[in-house]
């Protein structure tokens, strides 16, 4: 379970949010909506350990995560809006790099896991392709496979449907539902309301539910 207690963030003395409290059960989906500039990406970056917070606690399965942006743990996997794939690497190399370098897994281990994840995300035929040879939706799914390869406690998405057409958006919904059935806990930041409605679970409206 993810528990967030009294999280607070300020930028240059301006409070972006404060007293942010929430829980997401294991296998749950939290959808985060709200107008532009309200603090959704900042929240995601704090969760991922990329931005510091001023106060509060983030507890994942009983373990308190450091709020330090230099946090080393890989508890939260993030799928960024622009996917951040390594352009010089193939799909398989993108997925296996962190398990190989960070987790120091054996080749047999990370290759097998990569093959399984790519099959699950319907990318087996793109294994040896480079990012420039993929569609937006395919890049998105490679980014999901790459995050899942590190077995994170939480998978978080920043605007996962931006730039995708209706069909690719439906595909993202299907992937999120499939991962939910597998017990993956997910946080989805979006301002795409029809897409938000297609997801089950709690909705956090940053415009209405969050103090500032
Ligand atoms: N590094 C920074 N320094 C100062 N202010 C910042 C910084 N990053 C974000 N902000 C401010 O914090 C506020 C929240 O920004 P954030 O990117 O989290 O909004 P958002 O809800 O994700 O918006 P969008 O939907 O447009 O992406 C904005 O007013 C923004 O200008």
UniProtKB/TrEMBL annotation:
Q: Name one GO molecular function term.
A: ATP binding
Q: Which UniProt keywords apply?
A: ATP-binding, Nucleotide-binding, Transport
Q: Which SUPFAM superfamilies match?
A: P-loop containing nucleoside triphosphate hydrolases
Q: Per the database record, which ranges form the ABC transporter domain? A: 2-212
Q: Which Pfam families match?
A: ABC_tran
Q: Does the keyword Amino-acid biosynthesis apply?
A: no
Identify this protein by name: Arginine transport ATP-binding protein artM
């Amino acid at each position: 379970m993810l528990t967030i207690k009294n999280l607070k963030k300020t930028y240059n003395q301006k409070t972006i949010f404060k007293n942010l409290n929430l829980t997401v059960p294991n296998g749950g989906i939290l959808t985060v909506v709200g107008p532009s500039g309200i603090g959704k990406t900042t929240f995601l970056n704090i969760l991922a350990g990329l931005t510091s917070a001023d106060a509060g606690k983030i507890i994942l399965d009983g373990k308190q995560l450091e709020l330090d942006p230099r946090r080393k743990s890989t508890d939260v996997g993030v799928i960024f809006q622009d996917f951040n794939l390594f352009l010089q690497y193939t799909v398989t190399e993108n997925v296996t790099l962190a398990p190989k370098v960070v987790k120091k897994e054996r080749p047999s281990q990370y290759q097998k896991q990569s093959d399984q994840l790519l099959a699950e995300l319907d990318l087996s035929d793109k294994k040896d392709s480079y990012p420039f040879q993929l569609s937006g939706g395919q890049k998105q799914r490679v980014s999901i496979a790459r995050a899942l390869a590190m077995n994170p406690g939480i998978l978080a998405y920043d605007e996962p449907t931006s730039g995708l057409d209706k069909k690719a958006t439906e595909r993202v919904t299907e992937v999120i539902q499939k991962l939910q059935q597998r017990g993956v806990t997910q946080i989805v930041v979006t301002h795409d309301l029809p897409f938000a409605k297609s997801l089950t679970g709690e909705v956090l409206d940053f415009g209405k539910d969050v103090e500032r």
